[in-house]
Amino acid sequence: MSEPAATPAERPRPASHQNLDELAVNVIRGIAMDGPQRANSGHPGTAMALAPLAHVLFSRILRYDPADPSWPDRDRFVLSCGHASILLYTMLHLAGYDLSLEDLKAFRQWGSKTPGHPEVRHTPGVEVTTGPLGQGLGNAVGLALAERFLRSRLGPEVVDHRTFVICSDGDLMEGISHEAASLAGHLGLGRLVAVYDDNHITIDGSTSLAYSDDVPGRFRAYGWHVEELGEMANDLDGLEAALRRAMAVEDRPSLLVLRSHIGWPAPGKTDTAAAHGSPLGEEVVKETKRILGLPPEETFWVPEEVRDLYRGVAARGAAAREAWCSRLSSWRGDRQVWEAHWSGQPLPGFAEALPRFEPGASLATRRAIKACVDATAPMLPGLLAGSADLTENTGVELADAETQSAATPGGRQVHYGIREHAMGAVMNGLALHGGILPVGGTFFVFSDYLRPTLRLAAMSRAKVVHFFTHDSIGLGEDGPTHQPVEHLASLRAIPGLQVVRPADANETAQAWRLAVHSPGPTALVLSRQALPVLPGTLGAPVERGAYVLQDPKDSPPVLVLIGTGSEVQLCLRAAELLASAEPSLAVRVVSMPSWDRFAAQEPAYQAEVLPPELPRLAVEAASPFGWERYADDVLGLDRFGASAPGEVVMARLGFTAEAVAERAQALWARWQEHGGSPSRRTR
Amino acid sequence: MSEPAATPAERPRPASHQNLDELAVNVIRGIAMDGPQRANSGHPGTAMALAPLAHVLFSRILRYDPADPSWPDRDRFVLSCGHASILLYTMLHLAGYDLSLEDLKAFRQWGSKTPGHPEVRHTPGVEVTTGPLGQGLGNAVGLALAERFLRSRLGPEVVDHRTFVICSDGDLMEGISHEAASLAGHLGLGRLVAVYDDNHITIDGSTSLAYSDDVPGRFRAYGWHVEELGEMANDLDGLEAALRRAMAVEDRPSLLVLRSHIGWPAPGKTDTAAAHGSPLGEEVVKETKRILGLPPEETFWVPEEVRDLYRGVAARGAAAREAWCSRLSSWRGDRQVWEAHWSGQPLPGFAEALPRFEPGASLATRRAIKACVDATAPMLPGLLAGSADLTENTGVELADAETQSAATPGGRQVHYGIREHAMGAVMNGLALHGGILPVGGTFFVFSDYLRPTLRLAAMSRAKVVHFFTHDSIGLGEDGPTHQPVEHLASLRAIPGLQVVRPADANETAQAWRLAVHSPGPTALVLSRQALPVLPGTLGAPVERGAYVLQDPKDSPPVLVLIGTGSEVQLCLRAAELLASAEPSLAVRVVSMPSWDRFAAQEPAYQAEVLPPELPRLAVEAASPFGWERYADDVLGLDRFGASAPGEVVMARLGFTAEAVAERAQALWARWQEHGGSPSRRTR
């Protein structure tokens, strides 16, 4: 196939297929046009331009067996520019994954396996969910890191694969690409090969509108191996050779810069933003098929010889997997450890190893979590813990762990650097690779920096565990820029994200247990300041989300105080104050570490904990947003915090036992006045 | 003062002050130690290391008048590593701003002017709120862009200043630094000078744990002028000369890479992470003062000769401002335009120019906002609109506007590139500079990418306007990665952020009016899909947050439907269905474009719109999180969306007039059953 020349008009048109590879590439291009055309929606241009690269990858480079998409030792492929999903779907179909032509025809339709952007766990062969730009590159760094760690831990005879990722201009403009690439360069992830689709076009038009980076220079500054391929988008052998050269560089990640022509060779559309995000139009599709030597009236056309080519590829993949299976059966490693890695379940002894904390002790929940992690790390062979430069501060510092690096690839301690966003994306990649339990730590307020990755973790059901410490104004002097206020509400609103804010060290232990046993992502929201170990929390049913921590001794409760995290102790002290006040008020204290867990309980349990007839006051040093679901009044915070010692900020902003008691008395009075009706109607 | 040598131990100790500058620098170092020591909290090390740079900047380079911190033509200084706040406070004190020694002594205490991290509008002379890393650099790009735009628009005789920013390792590891620096390089912001404090230390220890970037190479790849100063941290004349060389480069932003030694010359602390985030300890402070030739028993010591030095600086600043005032008084530009720029208020005719849309028309609110912006742009001389590569899609494409660039510095259209995070930070800088009304557009789901900047905008009361379009599953085929679900709740939870989701084009016009007249940030949440212009929305009281859009014709309402955005039309159609159902139900339809606006209304108005005695059903194609505040039941979305045509997704996920009507009937039935009590108790 000939190269595109300087301007579209001058480019020679391929009239006939000189060989099978060329035919296959044009068949891919055909479907890349047909999918969006049929859906009347989608992104044909990049898929067309990268068809040769995808063909080379899927027919000559990637090692995979479509019969077993979960084969642990497969190569991983990530399309970071997820909008070009039709390309990935086409390749998965040709490669023999369980994705039919009918599935391709249902592109972007309700209930199809071929949604607008690739979704892991939805379409076989899709490794990670991409679309939000830059995430795929970050995930790929995680996939490559997982491979290196597992190769070191389990041995190269059973873990020995590579990660390939295609990135677009958009991926590389996003800040996360800086963090991820800088980290990959630092870690020297030699098994990572990225191809940059340098097509000079974004949605707004020419990249020159907004973008002047010397990308090769930038990646060299990160310590990557960089090769500028130039005009090689249609040169199959050249692409293969370049990929193999990159694969041979094992001490550094590689970037291949490929000049491509979006939409090529569609007349009037090539090298234009019009080819990016819209179907080309029936006539242009037909004309382009003519140029490509495809039957213009056929859609989703795949000739048998192309199917045969990919049948051969699949057979090679099956053989590779069989060889691996026999290596695994003679593998001399610990089978129980292998299982623990890949099942994501801890080794026996996990529950017993969880620390128990005695009332009277006092420690921050960020300290308690470290004790839990250290005590159970031996049962979690896949544990890979790290922080965005707050390793000691956030409790993710593992006892006796080596730092992850090229020299110590089995090191369980990752220094992510001050790169929260990459940390989140790398953790998602680690989790979706399989074999790894990624734990990451940063200040709760900086969950905002990695928020896009939390959403994708939830959507992908990626089992990652975030330690978000310094969880309220109680952190003190660092002031409002560092004090979370709206963050609890904003995480609770994410579907599928488990959020747990334990009240003390014992609840923290249970929260860690939940995180380790949950199928999806967990956010543990932990205090900077020391908290007393409370009576009644040992073995507390944190899995229920909320439970009765304390009831009045001598009489049934007339009011419920609901607390989370560091405010539960205030509720307990307020209960004492209320009991001895005049008139005395008998109150129940409910600890509610997890809204999502509580919402999943049966109504009977919910009503047992929060009896409908009792007024309820929630206490949480955070935005009251959302608490109306459970409470009639909220002692919360409708403003940003302030800089002062933590206990001063807490007291000044109203979080004292006295203030809780006063507020409870006021609620009680209102309740009596209105004959026991909920407060929304009485406000 | 002599240079630090290769290792701390070998470094010569300054025994006496050879000159006044050296004394001033050491006085700054003294307070940099005393502030954290007294607060028992804070970051002395960087402040000590950068004392010479700060002294050079504040005494020889920056043009400012402490008597008028809001002088429009002052130079802007940003401490992006905001944790070194004691340095900034010390400089502002010496420079003569309204910040006393007593204020310095109250460092990090309740109610002080010297919080843990610098806060704009809180401490005179602080230009932007910094602390969350990387934000200050992004703000600085905005400040420099504001200057260039205003210089072009208003003339160099009245706008002619520079922006200086100090960045740390943490700033440059953060992804936002990539976006901001890449954009600044592309735009050629020559008036921006950044100094990189290359101290090799982060909280976790040596930067070598996580960081191998060739920073100069990276910034050269962005098109910056880069100078590696090496070991020059204590060389005042060298620093001044380097800054002046950078200032002379006017076609590109400049980065000066300064090797510094954190905590120098504190014994045992220099070049250690221990000097970063904790006081040095009484004894070390005294010993260090001895080394520096300061009276070791004195704290917050400022000798008169240093005060004199800065009195001289202030006098020069005052003279510069006076000269500027006289230039302004003879300035031949349009005074009304000048006022509109700096007051942030539109020119006369704004309200009259707002488009009016007639019922029967149908257009997406993202299209309506473009009509509003185009119609009123002539009244908004400070308007600078841009998008993260979705210019046409998000309605920020200005009619007849030039693209902002070095060649067209007066261009009002900014192409931010696929850099949402930088866009948010740059917009904050533009707003806090003064003179500019920054408007930015991206898809609502990508508000996650710039979320840290929304928080800072709210905290800083930066008047920025975000157009967040494609605001629900109604966007269709792009699927769950692009469909916001939790975003409305997560923005509503941010204190001080105005969030408006208009129901149609007329509400959009009112929302634009609110955004333009509000003192702080606004998020406008806009539809991708066309929405009918509804009867009764022309001139609707969007400023009230919610209002009665329609009441039943013949009887008082027995139930209230509350809708926002694209779901208001569903409520209107459901009201019709319910009216003609058997039995007929007379319902009120409330449009509720803004929770924060409604929450600020008087209780009487709230009760008028939402009578306590009526059951209420909220309808919003988003997470129901938080709706219990206003509604007894919510038709919402507790899952991620799906890829299919927008109307299909809406219908499949339950957003049809029929589903609304059914749900209302069910609520009504429950309500009757329980004798009119709110539903939380009946669930």
From TrEMBL, chains A, B:
Q: Which GO terms describe its molecular function?
A: transketolase activity
Work out whether the entry's keyword set contains Transferase: yes
**SUPFAM superfamilies (alphabetical):** Thiamin diphosphate-binding fold (THDP-binding), TK C-terminal domain-like
Quick one: signal sequence residues? none
Entry keywords, A to Z: Magnesium, Metal-binding, Thiamine pyrophosphate, Transferase
Can the keyword Metal-binding be found in this entry's annotation?
A: yes
* Quaternary structure annotation from Swiss-Prot or TrEMBL: Homodimer.
* Matching PANTHER family: TRANSKETOLASE, TRANSKETOLASE 1-RELATED
Q: What is this protein called?
A: Transketolase
To which species is this protein native?
Aciditerrimonas ferrireducens
Name the encoding gene, please.
tkt
